[in-house]
Amino acid sequence: MALDHHRVQSVVAEIADEMRARTDRGEVAGYIPELSKVDPGQFGIAVADDQGFVIAAGDSETAFSVQSITKVFTLTLALGIAGDTLWRRVGREPSGSPFNSIVQLEFERGIPRNPFINAGAIAVTDLILSGHQPREALGEILRFIQFVADDPTIRIDEAVAASEQRTGERNRALAYYMKSFGIMENPVEYTLGVYFHHCAIAMTCRQLALAGRFLAYGGRQPSTGRTVVNPERARRINALMLTCGHYDGSGDFAYRVGLPGKSGVGGGILAIAPGQASIAVWSPGLDAAGNSHLGRIALELLTKRLGWSIF
Ligand code: DON
């Protein structure tokens, strides 16, 4: 269905104004030192359609650290490599626990609950790495994101990667713990190096909204017409985003926004309105579950005002 550009433009501009005026902005992620320096007063939004048309407002051209949003792209790549055998290493159930929790790993014998919690994304990264040098695996992830966004300028923010590499004890604990169950195939530090670097990819709202379009349009990248995944796989990735994309805030996100979404601790959220649009919002302040506070509110207003929901 073609987007009513006029209507979307006025709603997006209205929401950006409302978000600018709000004083409740959440807390910027403090556990990655480089992210704690980001100004919480920023807000951006971009909506991309199947023609590559982008409707944007606020700080939509400012690059931010996409962090866990890359887990959507690494999952897509890993499914391309391993198909459904991926599900031997990682589950498909919501965790009901924080994104960096270790508690379920012992009960579930090192198999992470889903590919979006840190443990799951580290296991997925390990699968992408199999048999390659870390630099090659990272190059493959970055090129894939550049391809789906149709933008070769997307880069890794090396300062963010180095900052997390220095302070990533929790992720190291998760990775070594999984290794003890035989889940990790590569040297743990190699897998973590690739993981920290793909989390540090920087994108603007515009680039991220464009990158999400294959999920909104049945697996096809509309600017090139190339198939990224088949429609069934796109539907399944969307299902995982809906059920697990916001960690223990996933139920609330589905309730309020009504769309599949994936958050990152950089304050970005990618949301998919199947058949209608791919949406990216960014505001660095987070809520208690580690998801963008104003980003979620903005998406709730957007879907309410435009009547977008999968339900
Ligand atoms: O591994 C970490 O903790 C970060 N690189 C990514 C976590 C994240 O983005 C969780 N999302 N809300």
Search tags:
Beta-lactamase; three-stranded antiparallel sheet; five-stranded antiparallel sheet; alpha+beta; 311 residues; 13% strand; 2 domains; single chain; globular; binds 6-diazenyl-5-OXO-L-norleucine
Instruction: State the CATH topology of the largest domain.
Output: Beta-lactamase
- Could you say which small molecules are bound to this protein? 6-diazenyl-5-OXO-L-norleucine
Helix % is: 40-55%
Q: What is the C-alpha radius of gyration, as a whole number of Å?
A: 18 Å
Subunit structure: Homotetramer.
Binding site for substrate: 68, 118, 164, 171, 195, 247, 265
Pfam families: Glutaminase
Enzyme class: hydrolase
Descriptive notes:
The mean pLDDT is 97. Strand 2 (44-48) and strand 3 form a beta hairpin. By secondary structure, this protein is an alpha+beta fold. It contains 13 helices and 12 strands. The structure holds 6-diazenyl-5-OXO-L-norleucine. The site of 6-diazenyl-5-OXO-L-norleucine has 13 residues, from loops.
Topology, element by element:
Layout: H1 5-21, E1 27-28, E2 44-48, E3 54-58, E4 64-65, H2 70-82, H3 103-107, H4 118-129, H5 134-149, E5 155-156, H6 158-167, H7 169-180, H8 188-199, E6 201-203, H9 205-211, H10 213-216, E7 220-221, E8 226-227, H11 231-244, H12 250-256, E9 261-263, E10 268-273, E11 277-282, E12 285-286, H13 293-306
Antiparallel strand pairs: 1-12, 2-3, 2-11, 4-6, 5-6, 7-8, 9-10, 10-11
Helix pairs in contact: 1-13, 2-4, 4-7, 4-8, 5-8, 5-9, 6-8, 11-12
Bound molecules: 6-diazenyl-5-OXO-L-norleucine.
